[in-house]
Amino acid sequence: MNAAPSPTRTEALDRLARFVPTAGRDYAARRNFDLPGQGHPHVSRLSPYLRHRLVTEEEVLQSVLGRYSLATAEKFVAEVCWRTYWKGWLERRPSAWADYRRELDQVDLTGVAEAESGQTDIAAFNDWVQELTETGYLHNHARMWVASIWIFTLRLPWQAGADFFMRHLLDGDPASNTLSWRWVAGLQTHGKHYVARAANIAKYTDGRHDPAGRLAAHPAPLNGPPHPSPRPVPVTGAPQPGVRTGVLLHEDDLSLSFLLDHLDTPVVAHAGLLSAGLRSPGLVSPNVMSFAEGALSDTMTRWGDRFGDAGPVSNSVDNICAWAEAAGLEQVVTPYAPVGPTASMLRRLRRALDAQDIELVEVLRPWDSAAWAHTTHGFFKFKKQIPQLVEDFVKMPKSTS
Ligand SMILES: Cc1cc2nc3c(=O)[nH]c(=O)nc-3n(C[C@H](O)[C@H](O)[C@H](O)COP(=O)(O)OP(=O)(O)OC[C@H]3O[C@@H](n4cnc5c(N)ncnc54)[C@H](O)[C@@H]3O)c2cc1C
After folding, report:
1. How much distance in Å is there from the Cα of 356 to the middle of ligand 1?
2. Could you tell me what the cofactor note in this record states (predicted)?
3. Does residue 17 register a pLDDT over 80?
4. Model confidence over 263-284: pLDDT tens digits?
5. Whose CA is nearest to atom 34 of ligand 1?
């Protein structure tokens, strides 16, 4: 078994540096191969770091586009932008997350325990389950195959599968996960579903698996209601200058430099809000918890000297509120958290702080604000905006190939 990935920005930057040479044609040609035995050599494995923003989308694109032209790295750039797109899509249609969480309480769980413990009669599926629960990672193609087999061959509820992923993926993310499961099921692009095929699995696992004759051959897509109309992109307030200010770190955005552009006042204290335990109503795996906690504490160490006294890392709104009071804060500034458990906790925190006359100011990252404006339709339309986003947000040296 691989060692658990270190939840630090240093490791994120090391991974990025190691990956960049393969981000061009190699990635375009080989990214679909699922090769866990070789350590997944053709993909970046940056997702746990991007998910917690130990490294940002802009930084990753800057490194890759510092080496390759946008045309050469087009595939990789598009994949990174899928994450931004899904986040914006869900942010503007939050009912997709609320509905999923509500339905999760209502679905029939018969057969789910066997699938989750890798006791089906499909060896490939069982292997991926083991990889997921042991390492907290699955290759994108394996995620598609697992989700498809889960929904169409095992005929289990997609919501339970999405929750299984959220409990075990180190990169478990409300937007990418929920919307990808919906996409496989045929609910995201209506009528279009993803059907896992044995020949495709055999090819892209390099012959490691070949579940011929075991997969549903012609399943119908699931049906669902039409998408709601998108709500506007959130507009966030600006921190007040000259008031006693604390910074609250949270696991949805641990790259804090952009906050400095908005802070016209010294920061006297900082604390961390941990919401990983709420990614699922069930028990989130210890690997996921320790990655999120480690990422928060790495960030507190890196930023501690600029952000005053260190407060607690806590999963309790009451504790964070007590910290803000004890530090005599007049405002708490934090990166904007998109739809998901952190956003729900921040809503509760806002009410608790309001009662103490302390303001909570969420600041939306300019990349998100600009990109989310284009999440009105499908990814194809969004993709046309990528060159402009790159030009506006990615400061790059001249490319060499
Ligand atoms: C059913 C299913 C569930 C998924 N759940 C999650 C999840 O909870 N969290 C998550 O981060 N991704 C999720 N994905 C997307 C994707 O599988 C992972 O982001 C990717 O496999 C991460 O591995 P990597 O970093 O090596 O990717 P690379 O191929 O190296 O891609 C680079 C980065 O681009 C982004 N990216 C790549 N592919 C996608 C994609 N299809 N959608 C969104 N972003 C992408 C990721 O941030 C990734 O780190 C899911 C996909 C499926 C099909």
Report:
1. 40
2. Binds 1 FAD per subunit.
3. yes
4. 988 999 999 999 999 999 999 9
5. 80
